[in-house]
Structures are given as C-alpha cells and as structure tokens.
Specification:
Layout (H helix, E strand, L loop, with lengths): L7 H5 L13 H22 L14 H4 L36 H44 L2 E7 L4 E4 L4 E10 L3 E6 L2 E2 L9 E6 L2 E6 L8 E9 L2 E12 L9 H4 L16 E6 L4 E4 L4 E10 L8 E6 L2 E2 L7 E5 L2 E6 L8 E9 L2 E12 L13 E6 L5 E7 L11 E8 L5 E3 L9 E5 L6 E10 L2 E2 L9 E2 L3 H5 L1 E5 L5 E5 H5 L9 E8 L4 E6 L10 E8 L6 E2 L10 E4 L7 E10 L2 E2 L9 E2 L11 E9 L2 E7 L7 E10 L5 E3 L9 E4 L7 E10 L2 E2 L9 E2 L11 E8 L4 E6 L11 E8 L6 E2 L9 E4 L7 E10 L2 E2 L9 E2 L12 E6 L6 E6 L9 E10 L6 E2 L9 E4 L7 E10 L2 E5 L6 E2 L10 E4 L5 E6 L9 E5 L2 E2 L6 E6 L2 E6 L8 E7 L6 E6 L1 H15 L5 E9 L5 E7 L7 E6 L2 E3 ...
Parallel strand pairs: 2-9, 11-18, 93-100
Antiparallel strand pairs: 1-3, 3-7, 4-5, 4-8, 6-7, 8-9, 10-12, 12-16, 13-14, 13-17, 15-16, 17-18, 19-20, 20-23, 21-22, 21-24, 24-25, 24-26, 27-28, 29-30, 30-33, 31-32, 31-34, 34-35, 34-36, 37-38, 38-41, 39-40, 39-42, 42-43, 42-44, 45-46, 46-49, 47-48, 47-50, 50-51, 50-52, 53-54, 54-57, 55-56, ...
Amino acid sequence: MATKILPFYQKKHKHYGYDYRSLDSRSLVKKYSSKSSSTKRSSSALETSSATFHSAKFSPCAKRVCQSVEDEAPDYTMPPFRSSEGEGEQVKPKARTFLYGTKLWEMEAEISRLRRSSREQMDMLALKRMEEERTAVQRHVREDSMCRAPEFLVRLRSHTVWENSFVKLFCTVQGFPSPLVRWYKDDVYIDQTSEPAKYRMDSYYGVHSLEINRCSPNDTAQYTALAFNIHGEATSNATVIVKRFRGDEEPYHSVLLPLSLPLLSPPVFTHIDIQYSEKFGVSFGTEGETLVLSCRMILTPNLGRLQPEAVWYRDDVEVKKSKWAAMYYNDCTATLTLPHLNKDDEGLYTLRLITRGGISQHSAYVFVRDADTPVVGAPGAPMDVTFYDANKDYVILTWKPPNVTKESPVIGYFVDRCEAGTDNWIQCNDAPIKICKYPVTGLFEGRSYIFHVRAVNKSGISRPSRVTDAVTALDPADFARLQSIYFDESRQIVISQDDLEGDVKPPGIPTNVHAAETSRNYIVLSWDPPEPRGRESLKYYIEKTMAGSTSWQRVNQEIAARSPRFAIFDLAEGKSYEFRVFAVNKFGMSQPSAPTGPILVQERIEIPSPPSDVRATRNTKHSVVVHWVASKSASELIGYYVDSCLVGTDDWQPCNHKPVKYTRFVVHGLKNGHKYSFRVKTVNALGVSEVSQESKPIIVQAALTAPSSPYGITLLDCTNNSMTLGWKIPRFTGGSDVTGYYMDHREVTDLHWHESNIKPITGRVYKIENLKEGSFYEFKVSAVNLGGIGIPSDSSRPFRCEAWTMPEPGPTYDLTFCEIRNNSLVIQWKAPIFTGSSPITGYTVDICEASSEEWKTVTEKAVSTRYLKVTKLEEGQSYIFRVHAVNAAGQGKPSEPSEPVLIQARPGTKEIAAGVDAEGNIYLNFECHEMTDASQFAWGKAYEEITDFSKVHIETEGEKSKLVFKHPDMSDLGTYSVAVSDTDGISSSYVLEKEELERLMTLSHEIKHPTIPLKNELSYEVFEKGQVRFWLQTEAVSPNATCKFIVNDMELTDSKEHKITFDKSTGVIEMVLEQFTSKSEGTYTIQIEDGKAKNQSSVVLIGDAFKAALAEAEFQRKEFLRKQGPHFAEYMHWHVTEDCEVELMCKVANTRKETVFGWYKDFVVVVPEEPPNPQTGDSKLCIPEFSKKDMGEYKMTLKDDKGQDITVLEVVGKVYEEIVQEMSKISGMSASELKIKCTPEGIRLQSFLKYYMEDMKVFWYHKESKIASSEKMRIGASNNQVWLQICEPTDQDKGKYTMEIFDGKTSYKRHLDLSGEVYAEAYTEFQRLKAAAFAEKNRGKVLGGLPDVVTIMEGKTLSLTSTVFGDPTPEVTWLKNDKDLELNDHHIATLEQGKYACLTIKGVTTEDSGKYSINVRNKYGGETIDVTVSVYKHGEEIPVVKRGVQPPPV
C-alpha cells in the first residue's frame, strides 16, 4: 500500500479520465509526471548550497536518511545514458518490446546503482552542512559571552519637524559591560537639569532615547549619542531641522549644518520591540455574519525592509488564505477577515508576529452562535465535515455533532453531495444515520465532489453545515505504481508497474480482506489488490454469508466495485458475517479470496459517560474558568460541550458551539455580579453524553490580582528639603483592598530610581524629606494588596524642590468623579495642603472639552463645598476638569487636570431608593450587581464620609446596602451619596427633602404604632321593620380580637334590645337596635383591639342627622305595616314606548280576587285597556297621541278587606316636561333626512318622524341662522311630519338648511344643502306647479246652479241655469247626449254678464229626455257638467232617474 500522504488530486481538484492506462491517455500521465519532476528539481536547485551540484537537498534527520527506496524515490539529476546507435530513437511506442528484454534488466540495474551513489553523495553533503551550522552557532555563542566595546546596532536617524512639536531620537547600543550613553548638541553636553521640561532621556534594555519637547528654531542642530564602557566608545550622529510655519523666513539649518554628513553604516538588526496599540478581544458572532479581527502595533524600530511576518492560527493550526478567511498586513496593522462565519470558525485565534529576534503573539477566543433555524426547535448545523480514505467510487465523511440545550436531542444526520461546479445537491442516505461518520458510495471515477451534513430531531432539520473542500474520486494506489526516470532536464521515462507486469489472465486473488470500519448500520470492507495486478483495469465483487454457513450471497450484483474498498449496508445488527472478494478483468474472474473471520455487526464505540467534578473559578468580571475531570469511558473522543445557567432559572445556554478537547474552558460573555451554574457533556462520533452534575454556583467576579497603578501624582506642598505629594487611588484594586503604597524617586539627571519609603504608606499623601534644594525630581507610586505589588505609575512630571512662599493657596488634589449620567456628573476634591497666607474661602471649577484647549469656569462664584454637580453637559462628549482654591489673596494654583471623563450613563444604572422597612425604620437602599470581593459601599452626607453613627447605621448584605436612620428628624435633611469601590465608578446620590421625610415619618409611625385597617367605617342602616343596624368591617383579624360598643360614653352589651355580634372570619361587627326612638340620639363608637393593633370608629346621630335616621326608621316601620295588605310594590311612574305612546305603570302585590282596582284622572274614572296582570302584578294605563289635554292628576287605588293603598302621579310641570323630552328623543332619533317637496306656493323641506306634538322643541336654521316663522318662511307640522315652506324662493334662499329637535340634553339634526343642481331642479318644479295652479284657477268652470237630475212633466218649460267662471270669459256650449245641441225656438241658450248661462226648453216633450251637458272653456281649459233630464206624461208616476243614467224614451 502507498504511504498515507495527501495525494495531488485532493490538492488540485483536477479531473482525470477513467482509462488513463490506455494509449490515448498515457501522454496525460507523462505530462503530469514531467511537470511534477520539474517543480521538484527547481525547488531543489534553489535550496542547494553548491552551484555545481544539481542533486536535491535533504535534511540530515534520521527518518529522512533511513527512508527506503520503495517508500519514495529521491529527486536527483540522471546523467545521460551511454547507448548504441539507435537507442536514442527508441522513444516511439514501438520501443515497448525493449522494456521486456535483457536490456531492461540492465537499465534497472544501472538506475539502482546511480540511486545508491546519489544518496551517498547527498548524505555526505547534508552531514557536512549540519556540522558547519553547528560550528557557526558555537562560534557566535562564544563571541557573545566575550567582553566587547560599545557598538551601535541601530543608529540615530535625522528628523525634520515643525516648530512647537516634539521629536524623539532613538538608538540601540550593545556591549559588555553595558555601555552608558551621553547626549550632545553641536558637541555641547546636554544637561537635563538646566531645562528639565525641555529634554527627557530614557534607557530601556539597550534602547536609548532623547526626547525634545516644544521644538524651536534654536533646536536645529547636530545631535550626538556617545556610548562608552571600559573597552571603548562609539558615537552616532543625527541632524534635527525645525521649520517655521511661515514660508518667508529662512530656517537656520543652512548655517548650522555641516557641508557634508558622514554616511551611516548599515544597521545590524537583532531585535524589534512590538507593542500593541489596539488588540482584538473576545468576539461573539452568529453564523452567516462577517467578523474582522485586527491588531495595530508600534514597532521599535520601524524599518520598512524588516517588517514582521504576520501569521494567524486557530487552535494552534495555521489559518490558510481561502474563501473562508482573508489575511492582510500593512502599515503596522494585521487583519483577519472571516467573511461568512460558521461554527467551524470558533476557536482560539492567535496572531504571531515573527521577526528575526523572536516571536510576539496575541490570542483571543471567537465564539460563533447558531443562526436561526428554518424550523422552530430544530438543532444547529453540524461542523468540521471532513473526508478521508477517498477512492474511485467512495469516500468516508466525518463530522462533529451540534450542541443541543433547549432543543430536542439529535436523532440522526443526512449527508448531501454535489458535483463540483454544479448546484445539484443529492441526498446520500434515505434514513438518518445516527453516528457522525458515513461512507458515501456511488461516486464516479475522476469527478470531484463537495459534501455537507444536516442534523435532524423531532422538530425538523437543521441548516446544512459548511461545505467540504472538493475531493476527486481516484485511487491513490494507482499513482504509487508510477515511476519517472530522468535522462536530462528535458527527457524522462515514465514506467508503470502495470506495464512491467503485462497482461495477467485472469487476475490474481485479492488478499488481506478485513473490515476497515464497523458500525451497526454498515461495514466497510478493505483488501489489497492482487499481485501482479496487470495493465487491465480491475473490478471487484463481494460475497457474504452468515457466520457458520456455507451459502454465499453476492452483495454487489449490479454494480462492481472499482476500488479496494466497499461499504456494505442492510446488515442485521448483532449478527456475524463472513466476506470474500473476487477480482475481475476482461480476461475473467479470479478465485475467491480467503474468507474473513466472523465480523459482528455492532457499534465499536459507545455513547460516552459524562465528565465529573465540574467546578468553576473566577477569571474576570465577565468570564469564568470551568474545570472538569475527563470522561472515564469516551472512545474516539471528539471533545466537550459546556453549558451555563443563571441561578434561579432553568434557561441553559451553550457556552461553546464547537467541542473542545481539553478539560478546562474559559466561559466568556457572562453578566458581572450574577450567579451561574455550569455543566459539561462529552462528545464522540456516536453522539453526546448525558449532562454532568452541575457545578456549585459561582458569582461572576474578577479574580484576585495585584492592583492597577495609581495615577495623578500632584505636588501639594514644598519646602527647601521636602515635598508633599498626593495621588489617586488605583482604578481597580484587583479584588482586594489596597493595603498601602510604595514610592520611588529620582533626580531627572539620574537613571536609577531610589526607594522613598520602607514601610507601606497607608494614606495617599506622603511627605518625602532629605531632598536637594533646587533639584528636579520625578516620582512614581505602586499600590499593594493581598495579590502583591501592582505595576508602578507613570513617572510624574519633574518637580523642583524649593520652598513655596506665595500668599495664594496650593493646588487641590484627588479629583474624583461620581454619578456620571447622560448630562451631568458630580466632581469631588480635597482641600489643598498649602493654604497660603490666609484660610481657604471657596473653590472654582474649570472645564475643558477633551478635543479643545479652551478652559471655562463652571461656577460664577466660588463654592464653599468640596463637591459640585455639573449639569448641562453634552451626552457622549469627553471633558477635562481642574479646581482652584481661593483665599483672601486670590485664586491659587490649579489642580492637575483630570483624565478625560466621558459623559454617558452606564447601562443599567441604579439609583438610591428611600423606604420604610417592616419594623418602621426609614432607610436609603442601594443595589450593585458588579461587585467584587474587595468592593465596599461608602456612604456619605454632603459627599463627606459618614463617621458619626449616632443617628444612622449601615447594613450591608451581598449586593445591597442600607443606610438606616435611628431617630429621624429635620436635621437629617440633605444630600446622601454612596459609592462602590473596585468598580468602574458606580455611585449614586439622593436628596432627602422635607416633604419626603415627613411622608416617610408618617409611614414609619403607622408601622411602629399599627392600627387595624378597616374596610368600612362605622355606619348604620334601617331595616324594613324600622330596626337600625350599626356595623363596620375590618381587614383580617386574629381569633383573639375583641371589640366594645360605646353609646354616649356607656358600654353596651349583647341583649334583646341591642344584639351585638363579631364575625372574626369576615371582620364584620354589628349591633341591631330593635326600637329606635327619640331616646336613641347620641354618639355610637366601636373600639377594636387585636394584640398591639387598635382602632376605633364612630358615627354621630345628633340633631338633623338623628331626625333623618328617626324619620327613616318610622317610615320603614309604616311601610312594613302597609305591605301586610294589598299594596303597590312599585308606585306609579311613566314610560314612553318606541311608538311615542305614554304608559303610566305600577306594580301591585299581595292582591286577591276580591281586591278592587281603580284608575282615575282628575277624579274621573278611567278604564284601562288591560286589567292588572295577576302573575307579575304589572298594571298600566296607555295614553296614545299624548298632548296637553292629557295633563292632570292620575291615581290608582287598591282595596279589599285586608287594607287599601293608593298611588298618585301628577302629569304636570316637570313630569310633563320630562315626558315631552323623552318623546322628543325618540322622535329625533327616528326623524328621516330632509326631503324636498315643491308646491305652487314655493319649496317645502320636510322630515318624517314617529310623532310630533306642539310642545316639542323643533328649530329650523338657514346657514347657521335660526329661522322664525313668517310669510316668507312658514314653519308647520302634523302628527308625523315637520316642514318648512319657502314661499316664492329666490337665490338668497339657497344654502344649507338644518332641522333640529332638542330633548333637553341632546340635539338631533338633519341637514339639506339647497343649492346648485338641487335648487335648480326644485325651483323648476315650483315654477311648473305655480303655472299649473294659475291655469287651474283661471280656466273655464261651472261654479254651480245645475242639478244632477231634472224630472219634468211634458208640456212644461225647462230652464237650466248655472254660474260659469273663467278669465278670460269662457265660451259656453250645450250638448245633448254628447252631441252639440241645435239651438232654435225650442232650445234657447243665453249668457248674461259673461257668468250666467241658461238653456231654456219650451214645451218639453218626451223627446227632450236625455243627458244635457254644458261645456265651459277658455284658453286655460274648461270642464263639462252633465244634467240628466227626464220628461214624463201627465198622470204617470214620476220616474226615478239616477245621475248619469239616460232615461228611457217614452
């Protein structure tokens, strides 16, 4: 078998054909071999030390020297073969026969000899070079240990700077003993004491520097560093040029610089100092996001040609550049970009900066959370999907399971594959596989594939994992059978072992058949190909049988295996099988291999046991270190998962989303001050173990460390030989109280620091003595606690030792800030040590924005206190403060400027709360969740620490602290503050004002002197028999509670006259007086006691109050007697129905059949439509169309032998008005919208409603103006209609009209806009009706005079006379039987005065009988009136003729 190295095809991902052994594709293999060999030889040529040798360079390690020829052919250059004529031409395919003859054996022997010779030469060269390197190292070590004169490794560099800026010159010197360095300016020694603020000289580990502050043109010069020791000296020069901003002034360097500068010798680099100015910290991301990690550094010296190499690592594995990671380094910044996060990216990231002098590195952990799942409750995606044992038609995948906390457990995984270059994903397994390993079969030889995995639980399927790198389906053993022989740089021979073996008919028997992978779901069978294999391609068939059986069954009947690996599925778990393999080529099938032994189908591994002894220890304010003991049974361990839970909840959260293999893990992202528990799970290929036992709860706090450095060193007082200094407390005490301080000092010209104190300084002000007058000194301070001595502070600025004699005060010191909110803060300071010539009278505070140099005074007048609340600050802005003390001589020295303070409230800031506890004590309470073991609550009044505990005491428990007032009074008013040490400035204050203190004292008195709370005060009620009940109800009382009833200072006891009861379960106390008389006047009191709690309640029944109670008692007594006979349960009242009918209603009770009912109105009997209902007792009298005539007194009476009763209702006055208003409400709600009706007189607006009566309040409005009834606007109504008549409308009558019905409370309005087209149509209709009415008025018509029927005796004279009208005078025409009547002497028609028409018939005969009509008509129209004439003969009966019926002829 070939050695297990990563084959080329898994690196390059190229596709190769199926039959590369064929003649058509052999050139492809030869081309690859040529390219590979050329690459190797070119690489070897670069590494060799000799230009004449072309052999490869080998490391002289034992493993490399002992490597066999069969393992790997060495790289070397083959000299040309000496052959006979024609040998050089045997490159064509016809020379194949040469390989099988004697010459082939000779050539192989020559090749073997040359290999041995080349290997011997290479080993000798390697050993020689190794000896030379060892000798060189020893020589360098000996030279380093020898004494030597100073030597500049890094020389000074010249600088050009602007005026008022600073410049710093560096150089690096080596020598033994360590040389001293002096600085010269234009060959003049620089004395630092002459101008202590001008120059600053430092020396650290051979790196020397000179800093020149606020450069001026006078600083333009040549500077020299002189290094010397006992063995000699050395110098280095540099020129500093200072330029002015004004371009019209010539700088001085033209005069001061020498004409020529000596050339600098090339620097000898040994060490680069790397300091990180910005570093990436612990980061949290979510799958799919982009994360950038960057580090910015300062290099000393920063040489462009000697930049460090930045290499990134994840869990100590180098991160290579790919589509998942991009690295960048430029301008002292190293950046790693993860463009698409996956849980595969979680781990410890390390940046290593590699230089020739060493390695500098920085590390931080990156956490990657699961992205939102496509289905709620689905698990997270698997991770780290990798492949191995790739072959022609299968590959084995492995992965890591996801961490599951709240989701249901993972039940299996789906594996998907996709051919490289496509987007067609195919699921490889039909059912979820439970183990984190799966052999993927069915691949096509020569094709490349990518894979991903999805997890499954009962809720759904997860997102897919990150895709794998592409893998090509090829057999690595095929390439191990190729050999390349190089004749020269351009010619080679590629020999395949298959070609040497020739045709094998049939193939040999496969050997070494065994199970490479076993699982309860599958077995991966592996074997060695037959030897010799032959040039023809091989396929394999596998057979199986149950252990102990001889019945063999073909496994892969349809698809033959092309690789010496095969995954067999569909096996019965727990059963044993035997297998054998057949090899097949085109010549036939081999004999079966030897059967394997019985192979049991079962899991080789088990689900691991959980870890034990989980414990957590403190680390930082937001992290905890979790330790555990490894699982005892965890075969094929993948790692561990850690979960955390906030104590008091059951919300377990994953701490890591990728398994870690070690038994210690730092959990980040926790909340400071909160208590957590932890648990651990073991992970292997079979899944996740049960959870371990929970760790003991731990509060997240920083571990005990040394304190940080003090800062803000200030000179407070100075004499001729002493200085008094002050400083600020370290920002972080390291988890323990600061127990003291150590101070060091030195003169500015001295390189060495001297101890200022032996014993720790307990305070933060220290006087150092025995100093030299006139000298400049620097100071630094270190703090100490139980964790040790912290790092010292930065050096103070130089202070000169000379006595202070000024009359003004010295500087204030120890500026501190608290209660930093979004727009304000409180600044505090301490009084100056040096007060000047007079006492301090006040203080002034200056403020300056951090980005500005302009100072402004905050206070207009000096404040007498040593604190000040500064308001109206800008949120997010940083400010600097300083404070001056003031005395009679004026304003003193300012304090040291404070550090910049960011005006922004801390998230979750809490304030002091005032309250009263259960014992009645008034307290101020403050709570802090970010405390450490060293944190303490410091309470103060007026920002001065409380030391007098005669009036208050402090109670602190855990994260809470109370300031309790012992005897509160008005002297306790003021501002109270609290600060928590060893935190990031957590503080608060509370102003206790008079009103608030009085409220708290009242509440305290109620708690200390409790009263029994009452649900109801003492009250009374009158029963129906005239009894009076006095009662009250308390809150819950104990069974021992007692009560007393006191009336007019006399205690009453339970008796028949006054029954007293106390129900302690409900708290009801009552007393019932059977007889409430005029003697019952007085004060009634109940006194209650329940342990210490007391209470009482009284009710006063004197004067009018007693008279009212007595009258009510007598009334109830009479009512009781009345109700013994027939009576009214409900007295008469009125009701208006939806149809606007008024009903007078009452309800009777205790009636019988003999009971007589009577209804009366104004003493007149009224009979109702329905008698009283005997079942319900309801009785009513209905009044339809209610109006004023229905006003009066209504009465109903009841009477029988048991008694009588009467009810009266006067429907007058207010009652009548209320009925009208209720009817107005119903009518107003039912009123229809206004409609238009045109008449000959004008336009009428009308609305229909249920009922209208004259006392309803109906108003009309035109354009918001109320309309009064007039000839122009006529207002009218009927029973179910109201209207407004607009007579002879004009354009002025256009507009909005409103009808309003008012019921005394609400207005009901209806509107109509009479304008535009609406008005035009109505006006047109009005004109039409008006014209029709005029025509009707003036048309011809018969006003009267004609009878309907006329009966006359024959021979008489008939005269038909009528009055006609018409303007103009109408024409009159007479008709007989609807035909014009012919006028003659017999029929004579006349018209007198134009209005009297007469028809005279002389000597009527029976022929004159018939229907006569008069037609009157003018230009406006007319009408026809009929008269029936009947003529009878003398002696006959007068006939009866009906109107309109023509009489029969005689």
